């Protein structure tokens, strides 16, 4: 019996937490929290109130984003924390709102977007490179309509500001004359590989 308990503890230690991570739906990536004051200021439409309960604190925000999107809303407000685990909420009441989308960008003429210092090392990445390198996805970001000439500069700037160094375009939302002007992209942080020389 003692051997079984020891083996179970070792197996748990090796595999770690068994709670499955909930992925954020691509369409729900732009869902964000909002305050009651901001919802009133933006004249947001009330959609519904509901309860969200998860097994792990890390899954609460993805579940909130997904459920908000599925309800036809784009903002959520946590109104009551019912239960916490490790000082982080796992069971909450939330109110969902549909707020007007204020676009972050207008169509900009080429050359108005400047590359941020430090963002010059940010590059696009392919799926093959992601599999062959030690890369971690940080977030998904949408570039609103912009000049085709500015798109990659804006992606590089956003990737750098999010702490990443690589991006991968997953969806073209809008295009002009066959060139993308609005896209969804995954932002990655990849470890740099160094070559060890033997002497």
Question: How does this model look, in words?
Answer:
It is a single chain. By secondary structure, this protein is of the alpha/beta class. Helices cover 24% and strands 34% of the residues. A four-stranded mixed β-sheet has the order 1-3-4-2, covered by helices on one side. A hairpin with a 2-residue loop joins strand 7 and strand 8. The protein is globular. The N and C termini lie far apart (53 Å). The model is unreliable at 12-16, 103-107 and 194-199 (pLDDT under 50).
Distance between the termini: 53 Å
Shape: globular
Give the count of helical stretches: 5
Low-pLDDT ranges: 12-16, 103-107, 194-199
The total count of strands amounts to 8
Q: Give the DSSP E fraction (strand runs of 2 or more residues).
A: 25-35%
Helix content: 10-25%
* Spatial strand arrangement across the major sheet: 1-3-4-2
Look at the helices and sheets and give the structural class.
Answer: alpha/beta
Rounded to the nearest angstrom, the radius of gyration is 21 Å
In N-to-C order, the SSE pattern is HEHEHEEEHEHEE
Characterize the biggest β-sheet.
Answer: 4 strands, mixed
Mean pLDDT: 80
